[in-house]
Amino acid sequence: MEILLGKDAEKMLRSLPVARSEYVKDSSHMVKLAKKFGFPIVLKLVSQKAVHKTEAKGVRIAGNEAELRRHYMELGKIAKRLKGKIMAQEFVKGRELIIGLKKDPVFGHAIMFGIGGTMVELLHDISFRICPITASDAQSMINDLKYKKMLMNFRGEKNVNMKAIINILVKTSKLPLRNKKITELDINPLIANDKAAKIVDARISLG
Ligand code: ADP
Ligand code: MG
């Protein structure tokens, strides 16, 4: 079994909106990337030895250049120890959702959609369908969610862009048609706001 992370996972998700990102070559390249993506900017460890980056202190959000340099230095040490790379990524503001794919020996691939972020374990609010799905299936997956309200006007924030989410669900459900080796896909999170939705973290298992 092979696990794709970072840019390798992004390549397989070409048809989907993924947050802009680049591997950082050195500190002057990093400063250039901060100009390109703007602040805040996210630095991430990409390593097969740290599939859960947060646990390895491998996700850093920098609000300015001084913070960015400090995080880059600290991440550099962790990356060296874990034989990893550092990826810079644009910061995406919004609500966190999860999308998954899983290959079942009987039913083929199934798609999962739910509320993500720190609430995911607590709420356990998810919906499943067999792949591939249509736009109306995607809409009904959204309607299935108990906490659908979290996608609507919420704490002064506007509705998230439902069309964007529906589009991403439909496209994700069709990925296994082209990539038969996908046994599992874990998009956690997809970050959605009123304008768009972007994938900021994806992990793909190939069988
Ligand atoms: P992991 O799941 O491996 O710990 P993630 O890339 O999912 O790492 O990052 C952990 C958390 O950091 C995310 O759930 C999200 O809350 C936040 N985060 C990560 N990347 C971004 C980003 N580009 N923009 C905004 N928040 C982010
Ligand atoms: Mg994640």
Residue windows where pLDDT falls under 50 for at least 5 positions: none
Largest β sheet strand count, sense and barrel closure:
7 strands, antiparallel
What is the average of the pLDDT values?
96
Radius of gyration: 17 Å
Number of separate helices: 6
Question: Which percent range fits the helix content?
Answer: 25-40%
Which hetero compounds are present in the coordinates?
Answer: adenosine-5'-diphosphate, magnesium ion
Large-scale geometry:
globular
Question: How is this structure best described in words?
Answer:
With about 210 residues, this protein is α+β, with helices and mostly antiparallel strands. Helices cover about 30% and strands about 30% of the residues. The chain is built from six helices and eleven strands. The chain has helices spanning about 5-10, 25-35, 65-80, 120-125, 135-145, 160-180; strands at about 1-5, 20-25, 40-45, 60, 85-90, 95-105, 110-115, 125-130, 180-190, 195-200, 200-205. The strands form two sheets. Strands 1, 6, 7, 8, 9, 10 and 11 form a seven-stranded antiparallel sheet that branches. Helix 2 crosses helix 3 and helix 5 packs across helix 6. The longest helix has 17 residues, at about 65-80. The radius of gyration is 17 Å and the shape is globular. The mean pLDDT is about 95. The site of magnesium ion has 2 residues, from loops.
